[in-house]
Queue: 3 jobs
Job 1
Amino acid sequence: MLTSIKAQSFQESIIREMTRHALTHGAVNLAQGFPDFPCAQELKDAACRAIQADVNQYAITWGAQAFRHALAAKTRRFLGREVDPETEITVTCGSTEAMIASLLALVDPGDEVVVFEPFYENYGPDAVLCGAVPQYVPLRPLGRGQSTEWAFDPEELRAAFGPRTRAIILNTPNNPTGKVFSAEELEAVAGLCREFDAVALTDEIYEHITFDGAGHTALATLPGMWERTVTVNGMSKTYSVTGWRIGYAIAPPALTAGIRKVHDFLTVGAAAPL
Ligand SMILES: Cc1ncc(COP(=O)(O)O)c(C=O)c1O
């Protein structure tokens, strides 16, 4: 066999494969979500200016200083939390890289990682690549049609935690269900993380894309969670620039130190002019 056991144990991305088929056959693409409209002119102009100004060599591995300071200001505004851009922010190649770099930095082979399912498909291969053992907790539909709510059974969630649990991946607002985890549900997750001394990796890429008055709450802002949470986010969806591959991980300094090392050896850094 030419490929590793790891590479054999997951399939190529279904959603990205479907995009290739849709492009080949001119089909409507219901598989991969990305904006089919241009990103803001200001962004395009700024990117062109940066390239013309010769910002074309490696950025600082964990991200250009001005960008990290802007992210800290944004985090203050939306999460109400002071974040140190020098020690708590890592800019990555999309939130996709932020997630796997964080998992590789925090999870050892054999550790268990709790994942709600259905889930954004990258989390499965991410866990395999880390040698982690995923523990799936189902989100079940309550109701039908537009009023469908997705919920987990708190007892099932508790049963997924144990002595080998190292982390939980939480994606809110959630792809693919659209679920926004309630304050009560977030507290249930936080309580188990504290009880089992687990870290939380939260994918918050849809933080600004909520409907019907639903508000986004970052798990990291709950009591006792800042020390044990990596908040993963990115520009792709909010700014309609999925192809730029710009994301970031916010985490306390001790966790960020590990994430930055892994990120450095995975990709060196994100695209400097972007
Ligand atoms: C939940 C979720 N996380 C992450 C991503 C990918 O984000 P990025 O482009 O920042 O890698 C997607 C893209 O569909 C997504 O749905």
Job 2
Amino acid sequence: MRPTLLVDVDGPLNPYAAKPHRRPAGYETHRLLTPRWEAAERRRLTEWGLPNKRMKPLRVWLNPDHGPALDALPFDLVWATTWEEEANAYVAPVLGLPELPFIAWSSPRPVPDNGVFWKTPEIVTWAKGRAFAWIDDDITEADRTWVKEHHDGPALLHRVDPRYGLALDDFAALTAWATTLN
Ligand SMILES: [Mg+2]
């Protein structure tokens, strides 16, 4: 059975931490008004007392090479992003990816201790001992430790720098890890 690759959007696919006016090479700009973004913007504007101000779309940088490169990996792809189903509606088509399963996070969001990222326990629960790799910009050593202690199966927690997004090295590391499972 192929391992699962859990894919975060903001950070690995959308290098949001790159310098604002210098789009990284290979990326294209998309301005999206997704229902989740609109709801969040509306809340923000209302909090600031500007309920009628025009809403700005979310600027997202995406690299069309990432879709085929992800698809070619020896993994089954699953979204692990706060975009949830919107990753299928807005991100997958731009990258040429098919509709993918996604993790539906608990609401309200859990608050783990010891610097563990909130997604980590949710992912381990979702994985049920299955082998998985996970790409995310928020992974730290605390998450690796937590997964070692709570996940009974192989796991690779691979941090991607949100200034650059997924690069060739990351794809190589994922492939190398999947090869060790055989
Ligand atoms: Mg992220």
Job 3
Amino acid sequence: MDEVERGRLAAYVRDEDKARFLLGATLVRRLLAARFSLPPASIVVNRTCPDCGKPHGKVRTDGAELSVTHAGDLVGVAIGDHPLGLDVEKVDPGIDIDAVARLTLAPEELRDLSQYNGIEKASVFTTYWTRKEAVVKATGDGLRTDLRTVMVPDGTHLVELAVPPGYLAALAVMSAAPPVVEENDATQLLS
Ligand SMILES: CC(C)(COP(=O)(O)OP(=O)(O)OC[C@H]1O[C@@H](n2cnc3c(N)ncnc32)[C@H](O)[C@@H]1OP(=O)(O)O)[C@@H](O)C(=O)NCCC(=O)NCCS
Ligand SMILES: [Zn+2]
């Protein structure tokens, strides 16, 4: 890890946040190392936030597009040739879905959501949420954007990913042609 990453790692108070950050940063370095045939430690990444200059922004590097996400026990990193955004969320039936939905969904999406109840409702809401967040992570705007207005823009492809039960994940890729997506478990990369 570089100095910035070591500083970020040291600043986390909770062990689980430390572990999630460490795993994401490690996967980024190992993926880029494999892609460019370089040692992981020699990879140069930039995490500078365009708003405030602190190193908590989207991970950028020359020659590849990246997106990192964490939720619960899952950490995901997407790598490709076009701007992309990856988001994984835990399906949490305990949250006040209607309250969060009012702040994040468009009127027609709220109407769609109102047909569902219980865990199904939580899944439908989380599907919308992961898709919208994947889109704003692809552009790099993040949650500064009012999610109620976020629809899938022209030239952006959304892919539903296979994740363990209790989670949902979406990948947004800003490319003219539909992307070819390969999903891999990270075990081999980490061994
Ligand atoms: C990025 C964001 C959408 C992440 O939401 P989340 O569900 O809490 O977290 P996730 O685990 O899915 O994603 C976190 C990762 O997104 C990446 N990220 C951070 N800012 C990003 C952005 N603007 N666009 C895309 N990706 C971003 C980082 O890689 C981060 O992980 P890492 O720091 O461990 O490498 C949200 O935190 C956000 O919008 N932040 C920036 C908004 C803002 O106000 N910026 C100005 C701050 S000064
Ligand atoms: Zn910032």
